[in-house]
From TrEMBL:
Magnesium keyword on record: no
Gene3D superfamilies: Chondroitin AC/alginate lyase
Annotated InterPro entries: Alginate_lyase_dom (IPR008397), Chondroitin_lyas (IPR008929)
Entry annotated with the keyword Signal: yes
Protein name: Alginate lyase family protein
């Protein structure tokens, strides 16, 4: 047996044994670290039974918002009026499906990219309008939009295909959840829509992309939402595992150490590589994100997806807001809100210049952390209230003052 044999190349048996013990200790430490990771002890992230509607907005939240609208209370009434007056709630909207949606970098070329995203947001908008008005025309319009795309779409191509699939794939299941579980008028082509999500969208987003954080977070949001609608526990678990790795690699906390956490598959194994990936930022402070020094718009996409996934997870029975995920979300919201409100950045932050434009992305996280948990969030509160009613970013975020403002349900 190897331990009792003379070590090769002249190494004493005692030295070999010590080396083996050191290796075992290292592996044990790595395993212990993995088990200490937030949620790593939850192999059963998927619930025993999925809650519906259960993607970003719950039945209780829909009911509370409806009661507020019916009572004419603010900010819900103004948020509802804003949504109904938008192009996305137009009952005369004509869907524009394509068999192949081709999206290059920054959607150039744009063959169906804007049409797909906006039809998906419109389907969600109509589903909300149905729920709050009980006007069947909105439910039927939402179904018509989903049916048009499920009868046509076959693939996404070109360099932005993963991100495009994530954007549209984040909105479709939110619409489908509301229609399937609150509208009793029938949806004959629901099965075809499910097939589209399973065969066209899920394979594109479930394995991630190893690109900028907002890409993978949005793709993960789509994978989580689609998994809920499909009641696919294996895909849900896989997407949530990606989320628990990707979020710490997107938002820095001082407790992470001198350098941010990384995604192992990206091989960011030197400070130089990490700094380059973090847009040239070499000073790391709590709340900084991987894309803060790129611009706040892309940072907002990442923050939005973190909050959406955390909210879906809460609805499905696993509340992450009191964990490392919630702390990173709180700090990211506060840090970006501070400078979005106009504070001059110090010279060590992005060379003293930030590109503002965070977008309507604070409402879900602020509601969860402040309204529900009672956490003080001065800058985030100021920005959130200043932006109300929050509209749509025309990509995958829509109407979150309406669905989540002061809504602990």
């Amino acid at each position: 047996m190897a331990p009792t044999m003379q070590a090769r190349h002249g190494r004493p048996r005692t030295t070999l044994l010590a080396s083996l013990l050191t290796s075992v200790a290292s592996v044990t430490a790595l395993v212990a670290g993995a088990l200490a990771w937030p949620g790593a002890d939850r192999a059963d992230a998927a619930p025993a039974a999925f809650a519906h509607p259960g993607v970003t907005v719950s039945q209780g939240q829909l009911d509370l918002a409806k009661a507020k609208i019916d009572a004419g209370a603010q900010p819900w009434k103004s948020a509802f009026d804003q949504m109904k007056a938008s192009k996305y709630a137009d009952l005369n909207r004509t869907p524009k499906p394509r068999a192949i949606v081709e999206c290059g970098s920054y959607s150039d070329p744009n063959y169906g990219c804007t049409d797909e995203r906006e039809d998906a947001i419109a389907a969600y908008t109509d589903a909300l309008a149905w729920y709050f008005t009980r006007d069947e025309r909105y439910a039927k319009k939402s179904i018509a939009l989903m049916d048009a795309w499920s009868a046509t779409l076959q693939d996404h191509t070109n360099s932005n295909a993963p991100l495009q699939t994530g954007w549209a794939g984040s909105s479709w299941p939110k619409a489908a959840e509301i229609i399937k579980y609150t509208y009793t008028g029938g949806w004959p082509n629901e099965g075809r829509f499910r097939t589209m999500l399973r065969d066209v969208y899920l394979p594109e987003v479930i394995n991630g992309s190893n690109s900028n954080g907002n890409w993978e977070l949005t793709m993960t949001e789509a994978a989580v939402g689609i998994s809920v609608f499909l009641e696919d526990k294996a895909s849900y678990d896989k997407a949530m595992a990606t989320f628990r790795t990707r979020t710490p690699a997107y938002v820095y906390l001082a407790s992470d150490g001198a350098l941010p956490k990384t995604v192992p598959s990206q091989h960011l194994d030197t400070k130089e590589k990490i700094v380059k990936y973090w847009q040239g930022q070499s000073t790391f402070v709590t709340g900084l994100t991987q894309e803060t020094c790129r611009d706040f718009a892309h940072t907002g996409y990442g923050i939005a997806s973190i909050s959406h996934i955390a909210e879906t997870s809460r609805i499905q029975g696993q509340d992450l807001y009191g964990t490392d995920v919630g702390e990173r979300l709180r700090q990211a919201l506060g840090f970006q809100s501070r400078y979005e409100l106009g504070e001059t950045p110090p010279s060590w932050l992005c060379g003293g210049t930030v590109k503002r434009g965070l977008g309507p992305v604070t409402e879900v996280g602020y509601n969860a952390l402040h309204t529900r948990l009672g956490t003080a969030m001065t800058n985030t509160q100021k920005l959130t209230e200043q932006q109300r009613p929050a509209g749509s970013n025309n990509l995958f975020v829509a109407w979150e003052t309406l669905t989540h403002a002061e809504n602990p349900a």
